[in-house]
Amino acid sequence: MCLAVPGRIEAIDCDNGIERSGRVSFGGVIRQVNLAYVPEARVGDYVVVHVGFAISVIDEREAALVFEYLRQIDELGEREGEPS
Amino acid sequence: MKYLDEFRDGEAAAAMARRIARTVTRPWTIMEICGGQTHAIVRFGIDALLPEAITLAHGPGCPVCVTPLEMIDRALELARRPEITLCSFGDMLRVPGSSGDLLSAKATGADVRIVYSPLDALRIARESPSREVVFFAVGFETTAPASAMALYQASREAIVNFSMLVSQVMVPPAIEAILSSPTNRIQAFLAAGHVCAITGIELYAPIAERYGVPIVVTGFEPLDILQGIAMAVEQLEQGRAEVENQYARVVRSDGNLAARAMLEEVFVVADRRWRGVGTIAASGLEIAPRYAAFDASRRFGLEDHHVEEPAECRAGDVLRGELKPRDCGAFGSLCTPEHPLGAPMVSGEGACAAYHRYRRLEVA
Amino acid sequence: MSAVDVASMLSCPVPIEQYPTVLLAHGGGGRLMHQLIERMIVPAFANPALAVRHDAALLPVPTSHVAFTTDSYVVRPIEFPGGDIASLAVFGTVNDLAMCGARPLYLSVGFILEEGLPMETLWRIVQSMRRCADEAGVWLVTGDTKVVDHGSGDGIFINTAGIGLIEHDLTIEPRSVRVGDAVILSGDIGRHGVAILAAREGLELETAVESDCAPLATTVLALLDAGIEVHCLRDLTRGGLGSALIEISEAGGVRIAVDDVAIAVNESVQGVCEILGFDPLYLANEGRFVAFVPAEQAELACAIIDAHGAGTRSAIIGRVDRGEPLVTMLSSIGATRIVEMMSGEQLPRIC
Predict the structure, then answer these.
(1) Could you state, in order of their start, the residue ranges of all structural domains in chain C?
(2) Chain B partners of C348 at a C-beta cutoff of 8 Å?
(3) Å from A5 to nearest chain C CA?
(4) 3-state DSSP call for residue A66?
(5) Cα separation of B263 and B144, whole Å?
(6) Please, which residues have CB within 8 angstroms of residue B207's CB and are 6 or more apart in sequence?
(7) Measured between beta carbons, which residues in chain B are less than 8 angstroms from residue A6?
(8) Which own/partner contact pairs does B358-363 have at CB distance under 8 Å and 24+ positions apart?
């Protein structure tokens, strides 16, 4: 339950409270998205959108950490000399 | 697409899977709660990459599947009234009620509209003041803030021809219901990432502690799910039972405060019946008394009544993770996506439909 | 083929001030129908066979082996980015002939018009049919027009039937598929489905996705001319690549293994699928096909397809394996799943 898709905020059209909304691009598909729940979001940020609402701003640094974890565990694997 | 493609990378997935294989020393059963995670696991074949020792159980994380039969019947009753336009997410259209589904009601002339957002339903109400527009509000905590916003706006703008049929459910009570069952086999949970983006993760700490079960908040792409499993396995092997956040790029510890404030404004917690599982206390959301005028059940005088499921349908056992879909007697014979007995076969996220559509190849 | 009078292309030949929309009488067999056929349709389709204007077209057919097919076309909206119902009706039938390796020659056209259809719209459709027929190298030699009550149709329904020549001696069908054959996909998938969806739902796309609607006969004939031993062809219309592969697997009794990573999907198509929860594997295409050829000829076949295709690249997406009739898909993370038939249409999901 959770089809929420990452998209880039291209423009913020209305900055007013619960009607805060903007245009978000999903790989080139532009949708009008309600931004009331991400008051801190700015143009250029990536947000996760569910049923027409942005529910979170994606933290780029945290996203990179997933791949940092991968690098670490791969090094660990090589040191332990595990068979492929 | 950024933040999607890189989390589906094959080599990275293989590395995560190797990590899990290196860490595991004995069998573990892990449940993933969210239908979106079930979908990804089956679509990408993630369980095929896991060592034999790991069993993945699929939980009741599909709000479509757990919507009680009587709620579908209420939606059908409303849809069949000539003055009502019933708006619904596409997921609900093929879920069988007692007498057909919304899609067949539409085919016989009921005004049923598929909407992508509760705000679309509100727009329809604004544009058609002579119609009664009812939005079928189904979903977990991820969707509830959107429904809440639509209701709040309707109230502020006095859009009197708008109302909602609410069947919102909450995840943590379901997790507790599973863990407190005497036949429980689940040893760790992958919590639903987008639900937690709203609720935060602190509320899982008492559950992890009380039942001694690791809970890892997990995302939806293959790398997320594999990393979530890797983190859960590490905790299990080390005898820890903590809440960890794999999906930190989206989930903050305290969740989304603005969304939670709106939920508290518009909804109240209530007991809720889950299809195939029974009533779980304090597991659902209902419209708060001050917004009662927008409650479709009240406005249209819908009565509460209990409806029995078809006897052959073992949706409840599947949703609790106690039965694999392919082990159900009706799977693929009496019960198929074309003529489903229960919701898990209809909803693309339902464990039964996911297994039927994306059946993994059994290598002889 | 006689040239169409350019001046007549510029404005609708039926007196629009008098008849701005189609009336029931235009299908009634009397003066109005005669006017519609003689002043609009016949001049637009103009060819020697049609000029005879008899109940049936008399056609010279040089071989004794012909392919014959028919299809009916309903679409909403009737005009969309990259095409319209006319291009579907002409190319769809031409492509069915092409999938047998036939050289398409003649099409019949049956119109069912809804009373109230704007005459200008009909004129655009008729002109489009002529343009598409020219592009596909076929004549529109006979036809029929009926008009139904308002509310009984989506504006216009078209049936086309087509005749083509078989000039080769291959048996191009699922039962000819062999273990070891390569599976070639002629281009990226999902464009037509998304173009229709975007038009219907008002989806805004940074780069408009146009339907891939196109005639495939020239490409197929080029494959045959080059000596490619084509075992099976299938165009990927309703139900998409997934359904086509399953149908061939079942009809041919073969196991087909495809690789998800090899299947090209345009970024905007992917975007639409992600936000609606659709699987591009089952989306409609109108200008794409799969070909089953011996593995050693696959590279050459791809080169020929690319030389005739309009800006998209073909790819070897899989192979035919030993085993029971199944379609399997290797996911991007290296796991294999079975591809099943879709039940019903895909609906947008939140879950």
Answers:
(1) 6-166, 174-338
(2) 89-90, 114, 116
(3) 6
(4) helix
(5) 7
(6) B172, B175, B176, B179, B213, B215
(7) 1-4
(8) B358/B42, B358/B43, B358/B45, B358/C337, B358/C338, B358/C340, B359/C337, B359/C338, B359/C340, B360/B42, B360/B45, B360/B47, B360/B48, B360/C335, B360/C336, B360/C337, B360/C338, B361/C326, B361/C328, B361/C336, B361/C337, B361/C338
Q: Where are the domains of chain A?
A: 5-79
| List of chain B residues whose C-beta atoms are within 8 Å of the C-beta of residue C351 | 35-36, 62-64, 89, 91, 139, 347-349
Structural fold of domain C174-338: Phosphoribosyl-aminoimidazole Synthetase; Chain A, domain 2 (3.90.650)
**In B, residues 155-194, which contact C (CB 8 Å cutoff)?**
none
Q: Is A71 exposed, middle or buried (0-12, 13-18, 19+ CB in 10 A)?
A: exposed
Token pair 């054959």 is at which residue?
C181
Domains observed in chain B:
5-61+172-245 (3.40.50.11750), 64-170+255-299 (3.40.50.11740)
CATH of domain C6-166: 3.30.1330.10
Higher pLDDT, C25 or C15: C25
Q: C86 near C135, Cβ under 8 Å?
A: no
Question: What is the H or E stretch that residue C23 is in?
Answer: none
CA-nearest residue to C257 within chain B is B361
Q: What is the pLDDT of residues C119-140, one digit of tens each?
A: 999 999 999 999 999 999 999 9
Note whether B89 contacts C271, CB cutoff 8 Å: no
Which chain B residues touch A65 with a CB distance below 8 Å? 248-249
Nearest in space to C308 (alpha carbons), one of C132, C186, C166: C186
Query: In this predicted structure, what is the pLDDT of residue C310?
Result: 73
Verify whether the Cβ–Cβ distance B114 to C277 is below 8 Å: no
- Residues 321-350 (B) with a CB less than 8 A from some CB of A: 349
* pTM of the complete model beyond 0.90: no
On whether any CB of chain C is under 8 Å from the CB of A84, the answer is no
Can you tell me the ipTM of this complex?
A: 0.90
Distance from CA of B248 to the nearest CA of C (A): 21
Give the tokens for residue C253.
Answer: 């009794």
Q: A49 CA to chain C: closest CA distance, Å? A: 9
- CATH of region A5-79, choose from 2.60.40.10, 3.40.50.300, 2.30.30.140, 3.40.1190.20: 2.30.30.140
Strand, helix or coil at B172?
A: helix
Q: Using 50, 70 and 90 to split pLDDT, how confident is the model at C95?
A: very high
Do the Cβ atoms of A52 and B6 come within 8 Å?
no
Would you tell me which residues 263-302 of chain C have a C-beta closer than 8 angstroms to some C-beta of chain B?
267, 270-271, 274, 276-277
